[in-house]
């Protein structure tokens, strides 16, 4: 009957309870959406960076990450690759030669990143074949290049045109070559889209005069969460002091830090939202307590123990808060599921404005379960803290005084 | 044998500022099965005396003994338990729980006493039938008239089979028909269930029905008449 009593008490003042539940619902909806958008965007940023620049785990010569020069490359070693590939959780080992070069066509020149790739393996990491918008994919034996859309646009180069690359090779050798453009790729990240050139790995080794050498082995793993564990496993397996094994968080500390800073600002916003809702809830609890002082007095007069009365009142608050949370999650879930599969892409000038900051002009969403249960426990804890007021009032209640003063 | 014994009860409000003596050296004994009215003009101390007898308020001095327990020495938690087990209250404004049905209101005390559901249901229904409102069992208090609500309040007070029922101006808000119906019911309960009733009232109809009338004036007992 205590549950019945609590439940019916909620609906004594329908309008007020609905407003309170509505405000909690709105807060949960807003908090879930905001946080989902934040986490989704972070995931996308990490995914983009990891899948293009580094891989979840990268193996390179010790010291390469601090000084990313082809002079810090290492010799191709099939034994090491086999050992790494056999590590638990490793799905693909992607060899790469990466360096910079000046790319020219006609009167235009621009610096770009030249990536020597093994086409079959590279696709497992960057999925570049899906990004081909013109022309054809590279073959391992090709003496040709794929170029990113932004760079192609800048150089005004088309499929079939010849691209001139000039750079410095291994140990200061001259590097110069002409490659026909075999295809054009469109990358979501503006930084990638404005300056990327793919050539087969053997061509890159020839171009940079570093036959038989690689700058890195990037790894595709089964679960990003297992990165640290797999790094430790591989490090012990290859047991080679000349090589360094790094996880994506160490490879991209700036990205991790900027995400953390942005995440804090997002959390501050959410806590402000919680504070606003908290005051609303407290107002309701305050009124609910004040208008029932007489009734509390009567209940205590007839023999209701304080603890039982506190339990009943607490149940009311908990039920009301839970309803708000559940309805909020119920509404946000379909919205977020839809948004997860259909990110919001910007177009036109707003897209250009966002892309100037080097990020993709789109809102991505996350369906991380913690998004939802975090709201539940925060509201629960808030109800618990705010609920201390009526519980305290009941604890201090004098039946005669409360009945007399309430009249 | 006395059920309640009040010895040298004094109650002073605002002791530290302007003292108001609500009760002055009151001594009364209520025996089992009595149907007693405490009467007197407004402000004479009727409600204060009733509150002290019921353990709702503490006297400034003196003691109240119920059975062989001196309730004025009990702690707050013990007093709540004492009220639950030994006293039934009927208030002037009925004070039913608005969100519970008539039946549930009567059951509520027994729920607090942790009695089994079957026993609660049977006792609540029996009392409502005796009060003549068995057909209103599933209605909420707001759907009942004042007289009917007060009958539910009496049923609630009797539900736990208390040693005595304290009723503070139970007929103050009732019309004459409802008042006489309620008094008949209480008299019947007094006879059939052996329940001891103590009223505070200045309603002549209640006074006429009482078998003992204690008159208070300025916080003092000025007469104690048995009929």
* Shape assignment of chain B: globular
N-to-C CA distance of chain A:
27 Å
Q: What percent strand of chain B? A: 25-35%
Major sheet strand order of chain B: 6-7-8-3-9-10
Count structural domains of chain B: 1
Average pLDDT metric of chain A: 87
User: Order of strands across the widest beta sheet of chain A?
Assistant: 3-4-9-6-8-7
Order of helices and strands of chain A: HHEEHEEHEEHEEHEHEEHEHHHHEHEHHH
What number is the mean pLDDT of chain B? 86
Number of domains of chain A: 2
What shape does the CA trace of chain A take? elongated
Quick structural overview:
The complex is a heterodimer of chains A (about 400) and B (about 230). Chain A is of the alpha+beta class and about 400 residues long.
Could you characterize the architecture of this molecule?
- The complex is a heterodimer of chains A (407) and B (227).
- Chain A has 16 helices and 14 strands.
- Chain A has helices spanning 2-10, 14-54, 78-85, 119-126, 149-155, 190-193, 201-207, 227-238, 248-251, 253-290, 293-301, 306-341, 348-355, 369-386, 388-396, 399-406, and strands spanning 57-61, 74-75, 90-105, 108-117, 132-135, 145-148, 162-168, 174-185, 196-200, 213-214, 216-221, 243-247, 344-345, 362-363.
- Chain A has 2 domains: 2-48 and 255-406, no CATH class; 63-240, no CATH class.
- The longest helix of chain A is centred in the N-terminal third of the chain and has 41 residues, at 14-54.
- In chain A, strand 3 and strand 4 form a beta hairpin.
- By secondary structure, chain A is of the alpha+beta class.
- Chain A is elongated.
- Chain A has a 6-stranded mixed β-barrel, surrounded by 4 helices.
- Chain B is α/β, with parallel strands linked by helices.
- Helix content of chain B is 36%, strand content 29%.
- Chain B is built from 7 helices and 10 strands.
- In chain B, the strands form 2 sheets. Chain B has a 6-stranded mixed β-sheet, sandwiched between helices. In chain B, strands 2-1-4-5 form a 4-stranded antiparallel β-sheet, covered by helices on one side.
- In chain B, helix 6 (176-192) links the parallel strand 7 (164-168) and strand 8 (196-201).
- The mean pLDDT of chain B is 86.
- The A-B interface holds A 1, 4-5, 8-9, 11-12, 294-295, 298-306, 308, 399-400 and B 51, 54, 56-57, 77, 80-81, 83-85, 87, 89, 91, 95, 97-100, 104, 107-109, 111-113, 156, 160.
